[in-house]
Amino acid sequence: MAGFCPHCGHQVEIGECPGCGLQITTERILRKAPGRKRTNRLAVWLAVATTAGLGLYLVYEYTPWAGSLPTRWLATLQSWGNIKAERALFTRLIAGGLPKSETSDALDRLISYRLIDHPPYTHDAPVVLAFQPQMSLDGLYTRHWVYLRDVVVLIDGQRQMDQWTYGSSKLDGDNLKFFIKPMQVGQHTITVQCRAILAPQYIYGQTEPPGIYEKRVEMQKVVDIDSRGAGHFFKPVTGSDVLQATRAVTIAYGMNKFDDDNGKETMHRSLYIHNQMSRSEPVSGKLYVRPAGKGEFRLLTDLISRKNEVDRLSIEHLPDVAKSTEIDVKIVPDPTMMIFYGHGQGQHYIGETIERRRLSRGGGYVLP
């Protein structure tokens, strides 16, 4: 009786299988080749899988499936690079009207915050760290800024600064900087804690608009303070040509408009400094003032002024100088403020003292 071996599938008669040696009995012998059944099953499963895959592809490509997903899922898929989820999420957020919790869930995944180094860091100069909020979904909230409130700065765990309001930054910008006093040589951990609020951009003095999103943020950066001073990294340029060029630095004394903490406009006796030099090196130094021809110069502030930059500096906190109708001003070169830009402005600064005598604010001159 002809059939097939159940072990190897060889065609056999009753007796010993020539393929594997198995003893074939009438009970063991197969009437059909065993491989055919498995082959048929495999073909069926392949057909099912192909049909299912094609169906999923058609659904993915030609149906608005992304619009039916929860906002949180869309944000997760967007972070994985899914274009359809990104478009659906953008449309949903830009349209507004979402519950605040859904908006927060999405923005928790879309916005990240970090501190950016501005080395070198030296023991005689401030430590500067830039705050940068990053949005992973391009084109979203382009007219919104991130405002920082309740800012606390800790150095090696010790509280150093505590301000209710600190400033604001554009998304993907790094215009907001933390100025931290000089630190001892060695490694230090700087921690910044704050509330980050995403809100429409507004002009200082206007009523602050409500934020659409708020998050408690904590950022850390480890910095190494160099034992060498700022003078090791930044060098002055001097000479008659440099001194001649400094004549293009305009310094005026007059009244300037400022807004107080309540947004009310007030007038301050102030200095107006406009760097109109043709040279590319910034003015970096200490700015001193005094009543014209009288007494010692008083330090007003540290200053760095780039080409075409304008600074307006109130002198109201030096009342003995502010009450004078004429004052003397000088800027003594100093490299420590070059740290503010790191090497972004090069390694050289104006090394000649800039001095102006008997600047007058007569007639209540209002600065431009």
Structure characteristics:
single chain; 368 residues; alpha+beta; Immunoglobulin-like; four-stranded antiparallel β-sheet; elongated
Question: How are the secondary structure elements laid out?
Answer:
Elements: E1 3-4, E2 11-12, E3 15-16, E4 23-24, H1 34-62, H2 71-79, H3 83-95, H4 100-110, E5 111-117, E6 127-135, E7 144-155, E8 158-170, E9 176-180, E10 186-200, E11 213-225, H5 230-233, E12 235-237, H6 240-245, E13 249-259, E14 265-275, E15 283-291, E16 298-305, E17 310-314, H7 319-322, E18 326-333, E19 348-350, E20 354-360
Parallel strand pairs: 12-19
Antiparallel strand pairs: 1-2, 3-4, 5-6, 6-9, 7-8, 7-10, 10-11, 13-14, 14-17, 15-16, 15-18, 18-20
Helix pairs in contact: 2-3, 2-4
A few lines on this structure:
The chain has four domains: 3-61, no CATH class; 65-98, no CATH class; 110-228, Immunoglobulin-like (Sandwich); 234-364, Immunoglobulin-like (Sandwich). 21% of the residues lie in helices and 40% in strands. It is built from seven helices and 20 strands.
Describe the structure.
The protein is α+β, with helices and mostly antiparallel strands and 368 residues long. The chain folds into four domains: 3-61, no CATH class; 65-98, no CATH class; 110-228, Immunoglobulins (Immunoglobulin-like, Sandwich), CATH 2.60.40; 234-364, Immunoglobulin-like (Sandwich), CATH 2.60.40. The protein has seven helices and 20 strands. The protein has helices at 34-62, 71-79, 83-95, 100-110, 230-233, 240-245, 319-322; strands spanning 3-4, 11-12, 15-16, 23-24, 111-117, 127-135, 144-155, 158-170, 176-180, 186-200, 213-225, 235-237, 249-259, 265-275, 283-291, 298-305, 310-314, 326-333, 348-350, 354-360. The strands form seven sheets. It has a four-stranded antiparallel sheet. The protein has a four-stranded antiparallel sheet with strand order 16-15-18-20. The chain has a three-stranded antiparallel sheet with strand order 5-6-9. Helix 2 crosses helix 3 (83-95) and helix 2 packs parallel to helix 4. It starts with a strand and ends in an 8-residue tail after the last strand.
